[in-house]
Amino acid sequence: MTAPNPVIPAPPADLPGTLGALRAAGHRYRTVKQELRDNLLARMRAGADRFPGIVGYDDTVLPEVERALLAGHDMVLLGERGQGKTRLIRSLVGLLDEWTPVIAGSALNEHPLHPITPASRALVAEAGDDLPVGWLHRSMRYGEKLATPDTSVGDLIGDVDPVRLAQGRSLGDPETIHFGLVPRTNRGIFTVNELPDLAERIQVALLNVLEERDIQVRGYQLRLPLDLFLVASANPEDYTNRGRIITPLKDRFGAEVRTHYPVDLELELALIRQEADLVAEVPEHVLEVLARFARAVRESPSVDPRSGVSARFAIAAAETVAAAALRRAGLLAAADTPDQVRPEAPVARVGDAVSVTSTLRGKVEFESGEEGREVEILGHLLRTATAETFRARLGGLDLSGFTGLVAEGTVIETGELVGSAELLRQVGTVPGLAKALDRLGMGDAPTPEEAAAGVEFVLEGLHLTRRLGKDVTDSGRTRYGGRG
Fold this sequence. Notes:
The protein is of the alpha/beta class.
């Protein structure tokens, strides 16, 4: 399986079209590893971004990856699920030359100056400088296979093609071989995801590829000096389990790089901002709650640490909260409430985050003793994350205007289907609201929906810090009032 490719542009018209023109242009053959090394060094010297889109690894993982590339080492990325291993591996394609010459029609992307199959060597000898040259875009030089129990040697390396035998070729003819994914990625980057899931007999088939850089297919006396950069990913638990990966294969990888989850809150937030596809506005304080929530789940003793909590958890949480805001806007438009002077814009509130405790529990592996308490545990961690965000954002701010409002007997109702106009009408003019909204990053002129999101966050924070009472009605509305 190959990674999804963008639309591939046509090769520039000025690229050489024959072997003779290629030689005249001064082109020289480089291996894939030399190509990666040269292009990485060029980006370093230019101060350019070497791994676009990779967040949180600048000081930890990426230096190790760069050392492996410069050393020409095949590598294994070890890490729990959702740490961006595949994303990082696929970004390596950007370090290849944009266009590389190939022998036109070669199934193995053979270089015109370095043919490896008997047929291609004969073709080069016969055509000489008139040999047609094609050009391969770097996006087509990446191969990827998810290791599954049904993966065969034929899938990875190749097998005898019965159709070619039926056409009259002899069994010893190399032309009867149907090449697998690995040789078809010759002169490129090949990835095996979840390497320990490969059966041991299949792992053996990769030994020659990694060390001798060639392949063996059944009983054929065939040596193809492949030009590959091989990368694998694995979960540390599987990788270190005895018998899950054969020792000679581990020994043949030159570098073992450990990945990790974002080390601090800002990196977690940056990852959510970059990756989440949000269908509504999600204020920064709500995103911070979700980032803290993901980190709290990851660190909870109730969650199985061997499984990990994917970065996709926080991303999916942000997308779910945005969807809840969009749903509210749609339902309020249909309700035609008297407070609505204009359609409700979709802006997420902290109360929308409650829905993620049930919809995302399947993304978390809990310890065996916690069966039946999953939603309860996630709810507690979400409240903890909200309280921490409240203290970080609004700590030390005078919010007596809000507590004074409810001390006078006012009950403020909010909830999933309470519009911003209705919520703001209940609150009215509250001393300290403008400062609170400013602290939440909403500026001097927030929209009514943004102001309502800020008000709900203040009320929930006061409740969680025991300064305000809270009650949830049978209809799903939340009432703030009285003492916590």
